[in-house]
Specification:
It is a single chain. By secondary structure, this protein is an alpha/beta fold. It has two domains: 17-33 and 42-170 and 313-391, Rossmann fold; 172-303 and 395-420, 3-Layer(aba) Sandwich (Rossmann fold), CATH 3.40.50.2300. It is 40% helix and 16% strand. The protein has helices spanning 15-28, 70-89, 109-119, 132-146, 172-186, 203-219, 236-245, 256-268, 292-298, 313-325, 333-354, 360-367, 417-420; strands at residues 40-41, 47-48, 52-53, 56-63, 97-104, 125-129, 194-200, 222-228, 249-253, 275-277, 299-303, 394-399, 407-414. Helix 7 (236-245) crosses helix 8 and helix 11 crosses helix 12 (360-367). The two termini are 13 Å apart. The relative contact order is 0.15.
């Protein structure tokens, strides 16, 4: 990759996602119409359209509760359901009650695209869509005909550039740059060293790899790549290859299971190097497994916000409310991600109401007015430019079973010098 110009990289999708898109688009694309086709005026003079009927605003959720990100998907979804419950109890937004329609795609490409095809004509927008490859597979439809706001639980730079698909927080490439900066400044990684990078095939991993290659070029590192599939859960072969290569640090851009296997196997193989993951590569439930001690000792995570256990009034209230609503479920950063996305969508709805335009177009325009949004988790989010991520900052977290949500802050929100000079690209 040429430094400071990742535009020449080709967007990579899983083959099955593309196949599913092609199969379903031909059969179903005619079902979705632009929100402007059926705009109408409510009694209060507010223009409405698709996704609003009677006094209800219907919002879609495409999540993973049974696949690679099952634990996080559950937390994200429940946090959004909690948000909706509280908003409705306070009278709703613009006189309307919010309703979430949830579909679990299990991190399966065909189910993800089918779920989008089903819900797109019925909802105003999506407060959640897990999976960068799956969002990318329908992005052309979102941009070209549906034009409903989608807030993905995905941070690929390939999703930038759309006024309708809006990444919350730093993209994977920037997050990876910040993560490697942490390894170099605080964990002994030096110029001339080899850096291992284990990553999912597809948009998520490929975009994170862009960041590590950019940082390697700037900092004098050599990247040793290990590409894996979401179905690969045993990292023994990858650890053996990285140990043989003599890496001094590892980045993992995969799921919680892969991260736990990588760190646990590395400890057993006496590959004693620091490992850092992207924000979706950890779940606190892993601390109760055999890999728990190794994760606490030698694993870190780059996050777009402070964790659920942050020392802020908003975080403490969310913890109390979530525990009351879901007393049998554990806390993790999926709660923060879900709550934040729902809050962002809610703020856009409030702004759209003020402008008397609750159509899809009105909500999209309203989001552009949110240039400094922080719901108590430490990072201001700027949604005024669709071509840019809402933040370039990352928080570095470390697993800690004694902390609320299983993670503690070891470095406050910040941006590496190299990240400041880097421009993510959607193409």
């Amino acid at each position: 990759m040429t430094a400071r110009n990742p535009r020449n990289r080709t967007r990579t999708l899983t083959a099955t996602a593309v196949a599913a898109l092609l199969a379903l688009t031909a059969a179903c694309s005619s079902k979705a119409k632009d929100g402007g086709d059926d705009d109408k005026q409510s009694a209060g003079g507010v223009k409405t359209g698709q996704g609003i009927s009677g006094k209800t605003i219907d919002l879609g959720v495409l999540t993973d509760m049974t696949g690679v990100y099952a634990t996080l998907g559950k937390s994200v979804t429940q946090a959004q359901q909690l948000y909706v419950k509280q908003v409705n109890a306070d009278g709703g937004i613009c006189g309307y009650q919010l309703k979430l329609t949830v579909r679990d795609h299990g991190y399966d490409p065909q189910k993800a695209v089918a779920g989008y095809t089903e819900l797109a004509p019925k909802v105003l927008g999506f407060t959640q869509f897990i999976g960068s490859p799956f969002v990318a597979a329908v992005k052309q439809r979102i941009d070209g005909q549906d034009k409903g706001l989608v807030l993905p639980q995905a941070w690929s730079a390939h999703l930038l550039g759309s006024p309708y698909v809006r990444v919350i927080g730093s993209t994977y490439d920037i997050e990876t740059i910040n993560a490697i900066d942490f390894l170099m400044k605080e964990k002994g990684l030096q110029k001339g060293d080899k850096l291992g990078h284990v990553y999912f095939e597809g948009d998520y991993g490929e975009n994170a790899l862009q960041g590590s290659k950019y940082m390697a070029d700037k900092a004098g590192l050599t990247v040793v790549e290990q590409k894996i599939k979401p179905t690969d859960n045993d990292m023994t072969a990858q650890v053996a290859a990285l140990k043989k290569a003599g890496v001094k640090g590892i980045v993992i851009s995969a799921g919680p299971r892969q991260a736990a296997s990588l760190v646990g196997v590395a400890a057993a193989a006496k590959l004693n190097v620091p490992v850092i993951g992207n924000n979706s590569a950890f779940a606190p439930q892993l601390l109760a497994t055999q890999a728990g001690p190794a994760l606490e000792k030698n694993y870190w995570v780059a996050s777009p916000s402070l964790p659920i256990g942050a020392d802020t009034a908003e975080a403490k209230k969310l913890v109390a409310d979530y525990r009351k609503a879901y007393p049998k479920d554990s806390l993790d950063n999926g709660v923060v991600a879900g709550w934040t996305a729902a809050s962002v969508f809610g703020e856009a709805l409030k702004k759209a109401c003020e402008s008397k335009d609750l159509t899809r177009e009105g909500v999209d325009k309203a989001l552009l007015t949110l240039s400094s949004f922080d719901n108590g988790f430490g990072v201001d989010q700027d949604f005024s430019d669709p071509k840019a991520p809402s933040s370039h900052q990352s928080v570095i977290l470390q697993p800690d079973k004694s902390a609320v949500g299983g993670m503690k802050v070891v470095r406050q929100p910040g941006e590496a010098e190299q990240a400041a000079s880097y421009t993510p690209s959607a193409s």
